[in-house]
Each structure stands twice: as C-alpha cells, then as structure tokens.
Design goal:
mainly alpha, three-stranded mixed β-sheet, two-stranded antiparallel ribbon, 5 strands, 56% helix
Length: 205
C-alpha cells in the first residue's frame, strides 16, 4: 500500500502559497504593462514600509532553508537569521518567478521522497510518517546578534515556513490593494488568510 506522511502535506501547503505568489505576479502583469508591473512589485508601500518583492524574498528565504534541511540529511542546524538580504528576486519579478518555480520543484521532489510503499502503516518508519528527523533551529530573539537554539524537526520547520509565509501574504495583500491598486477580484480566493480563519468562516455559513 502507498502511505503518505506528514511531509508531503506540509509541502503541498507551502506549494499552495507559492502558487498564490505566482498568481499575484500574473495579476500585476494583467493590470499593468511589464514596466509598471515591475515597479509595483518593487516599490515601497508607505503603509507597510516594504514592497511586495521584499516580502516575497523574505518568506522564500525561510522556506528554502527549511526545504534544504528536509532534503539534505546532513543538515542538523538551521539558521534563519544568518542569510543574505536583498537580491534580484525582491526587485525583479522574473527572478522571483524563477525562484518560486525552482522551490516548487524541490517541494514536489520532497513529496515524492516522503511517499512510500509499505505492507502496513505500522511498518512505516517514524521519520517518514511524521518528518521527525531532528534539527536545531536557531533564531535571534533580540537585536544583539545572539542566536537561541531550539530543538525541532524537519516537519515542524516546514510547518513553520508555511505559517510564517501566510502572515507575510497578509501584509502583501495590504500592499497589493492599497499601493498596487489591485482589487479583491484580482487576487486568488483566501489570499493572505490563515487556514484557521478560512475554516472558522466556513463553520459560520
């Protein structure tokens, strides 16, 4: 029988967010010519103090780090705050699209790697079912440059990457509507909304 563990579910969740990012780029290109769309992508929204591209780049940084740890079994430590800032993907939509496509391919490969054949679910390795391989996740909690190390798993970090990205998508939504002058109809359904909020609203219908 084929068993699908937690990691593919987490990868699919992250891939859905990546798809929303591509949809936003398409919406900008549909509303504006290529030059103006690019300007909207990289221009700073005074409400948020950042651009769509900057929020894209930041959340992609985190997902790439988590995905790398899940892909490479030799990675035992994750450093989210020791990363390059800026780069072409936060100012160039084509670069951002290419980066998203490459990351989507990485996540798709992970889905396949963590989908396996077993005689019985009880025979499946724990690490494959739950993404429970241990990693140490490092964060800066203050501005003094000192990292704090937390015990985690690759499954937990892929979940964190999705949760983190959703909150950035909420900020991107503010920029898209108030600065890039898109409308709700231009954006995918539930763009920038937490799954728990979507579920809550569904239960009220």
């Amino acid at each position: 029988m084929t068993a699908i563990g937690l990691v593919p579910k987490l990868c699919r969740g992250n891939m859905a967010i990546l798809s929303q990012k591509l949809a936003l780029i398409d919406a900008l290109l549909h509303k504006y010519d290529t030059k103006v769309a690019g300007e909207m992508f990289r221009s700073i929204c005074p409400i948020v103090g950042a651009s769509i591209g900057q929020h894209f780049r930041h959340s992609l940084d985190h997902l790439e780090i988590a995905a790398s740890a899940a892909t490479d079994g030799t990675i035992s430590k994750i450093h989210y705050d020791l990363r390059a800032r800026g780069g072409a993907s936060e100012s160039d939509m084509n670069e951002a699209s290419n980066r998203i496509a490459k990351l989507s391919d990485t996540l798709e490969t992970l889905c396949q790697d963590y989908t396996f054949e077993v005689d019985s679910p009880n025979n499946a390795p724990e690490e494959m079912i739950h993404g429970s391989r241990s990693v140490m996740a490092n964060f800066m909690l203050t501005g003094d440059g000192v990292e704090e190390e937390l015990t985690s798993t690759i499954g937990r970090e892929l979940g964190f990457a999705a949760h983190h990205a959703i909150h950035h998508m909420a900020l991107i939504k503010i920029i898209a509507l108030n600065h890039a002058e898109l409308t709700m109809d231009d954006l995918p359904a539930d763009f920038g909304r937490a799954p728990s909020t979507v579920n809550h609203d569904r239960t009220l219908r």
